[in-house]
Fold these 4 entries.
Entry 1:
Amino acid sequence: MAKSTSPTFAYRLSVVYRFTFIFVLGFLAMMYLSLSLTTLFTYFINKAEAIFLAALISILFYLMFVILGFCFNSLIKLTWISLALVGLLFGLSVGLN
């Protein structure tokens, strides 16, 4: 009968890294997207509706960010793409405000 092997320390560390990285950076990206969309939408619709619509779109973005974050096999590729996306959204929010 074959023995079951426990996951290695490197595997456990990569899983913890992926979880924390995706959820923390996803939240930051959602926050900056919400700020940017609220600023953009206030030019076209009322402020309350702009905030609601920006929050709804940002939450959907966060959901897709988390789901797609677990589709990457390479942690390095995930790291660079996520950091670039958060940097882009941060630049957009700073530029609009």
Entry 2:
Amino acid sequence: MNVVVEYRKGKPMVKALDTLCSALKENKQDENLKIMDFFKSIDEEILSKHPDITAGGLNSCHGYWYEAIISLIAWNHFATNQTSNLIIPLPNISQFDISTLYEEELSNYLSELKSKVMEITGVSLISSNPDFVIISRNAIECANLEIRPLTATPENLKMIQDYHKRLVGCCGFDEIIGYLSVKTSLRSDRRLQICHEGSLFKSMYSHLKTRSWDINAKGIFYYAAATSLNESDIKALRTVATHSLSNVHEIPQSAVDAAYKADTLTSIYRMIDQISA
């Protein structure tokens, strides 16, 4: 396996995509192999060649690798299934305003809302982006994407990571179907983040529903996935979307619609098949 490292200010840093793709190429994956066991084997190879790499640096790679693997599986599922919707990764909030995926009028509604919240309360409406967005196949035409299966190369993974830029302004009201948050582990703060994001994005959808006068709106979904998921995690994620409590005309909504234990390639394939339908 080729471990790719670059030095920044004299400190070694793993080039995550290059190293992951090399590991995937060398190790023909057993689809039932635990993802974290696979990452551990990469860690051991890295440390055997670069023992000064820190544990923190490796942990950062784990999250990045997990998202990259899910990205590639999701894209290839979309490319090979004519009825599948598109699931693509999103950068963090400092790099991308997720509301710009909507058509201009809808995006402007959310911009007005964010400005009003900031003006009145002095706080930001959105504190973080979900890891992935699920977009209707109907919205893809305007992005002019070349739809074909891709292999695991750094270039292909970077291309998938940039697809959100091609979809700016492409999505009608019901063409953003939902979001997916993925974690290699679920600490208590991460559970809270997932529930907060789910509740927030559902409330923004509700705002668009009101502004668009669409009483028959389908609703929007928010999913979570992790390599480890126990009963305590599932219970903690069963939280109400708080905005839905104030509307007497609708039943309360869950902040998170489903949580998946995605700890092997097989379980990731299964999850993608379900949430992209």
Entry 3:
Amino acid sequence: MSDSAALAVQLHGGPLDGQTVLVDLDAEPWTEVTSSHGGRSLYAPDEAGVWRWVRDIPWEAM
């Protein structure tokens, strides 16, 4: 992410609710965040630009 623009966004819902992460603005319109429950949590912006939990991806599925 060092060569591209990033934005700090607050996550809503799911296991990472309330956390703030950096999102690469030049990448896909979603982000995967490693979570402490094992695996990754997928978040994407809704129509209003709020980053909401979509689903979890278990380690074995990656």
Entry 4:
Amino acid sequence: MSPTKSNTFLGVLLVLLSSCHLNKGVNEEPIFKNNPPESTVYKNKLGELIKADDDALSYFVKGYKVQYGHDLLIVTVSGPDILATAFIQINDPKGIEQLVVNRADGYVGAELEGLKLEATKGPKGTVLLYKSVEAILD
């Protein structure tokens, strides 16, 4: 590769990397390391942490699925001592209509700034319900 092409490639790569939102959470919680996100113990612990430290957490779109007739937004939850996957049930998509219509296609990696959730107990563990979001940062 010529020096000009190499420098151009490196420049483009740096721009792309700097525009990404990096989630810098560290997973210190053994429950998240040793259990799948769908497990009751995982969902319950995540619900506790979200209730206790919601303002210190960041949420990044990971995917979308429909399960048992419910729309679920899959997100990475990142914070000082947490890096986990959450399934957020969407009953009212106000503020994220396009994300739901597109089933998160084109939104993977976007940060959900000011995401508000409600954590409720369900028969298979804590259920996280979407309430609102201030902005979607791509």
